[in-house]
Design goal:
single chain, about 75% helix, globular
Amino acid sequence: MLLVLGVGVVVAALMVGQPFVLVPETVLEQVVVWRLRAPRLVLGLLAGGCLGVAGLLLQESLRNPLAVPELLGVSSGASAAVASCVAFGIAVPGAPLTPALVGAAIGGGVTLLAVRGASSPAAVLLIGAAVSSACQALMLASTAIADSREQGVLVRYLLGSLTGTTWPVLGPVAIGLAVAIPAVVLVWPRVRLLRLGDDEAHSAGLDPGRTRVLVLAAASLLVAVVVGPAGPIAWVGFFAPRLARRLGADSVLATALVGAVLVAGADVLARTVLYPVELPVGGLTAFAAVALGLLTGRSAWSSRG
């Protein structure tokens, strides 16, 4: 079912919009489909897949369903670093991938240092939310001091947007994925041991603390690769793993597929629902996360009752 839905979203992303293109025949239709919609679709699929897998890694390694990039300073750290470079006119080689990677590592690293000794999920959540809030404050400050031309670009970026994606934008993403995918393959067997518990991981010869640092590094890389060009597309790392589990497919590949379909589908809605006004895709994914949270919460309350 998920594969069928994914194929439907891909076809809709290429065909639906202004103009509606069933088969690209004219020069204008070919430009719209292959130079505008196709790279945007590819970035949406990659963004959803990467954010979903990053959320899965963090949730499983910390054994906390609320441990998502948005609440551990990873996503907001990457966004803050990119926004600061834009606002202050800092030229960084490899931008936006390089500043996003540095920001994600700093945000996630600060959170990990701060939560040392905190064992309860609520404590981890509160500390991570505090770090994320600090990063968001830096984002807002950067936006406030930027000139009027840059402010519009920054606001759209910080809400999460695939607008203006071209094939050259995907070059740094491909380079980042060439490093991130092997990193995920290497850490995933260790994550499966960590979710059994620290004692079990110790008995298997694993150092839980060091392993979580490696997992955070892999998750930060995944987030940075897509947050750099697309901005912080909200809460995909939260609900993609949950949806995959509810579909009975608790794996990295299934989570990546769920995240990819969600973001690509949200982008189709973002650019067509209020055309010619384009909605931020991050706003739609956040709305979907709230709806999913309410539904799952209601199910949990009903089962207790």
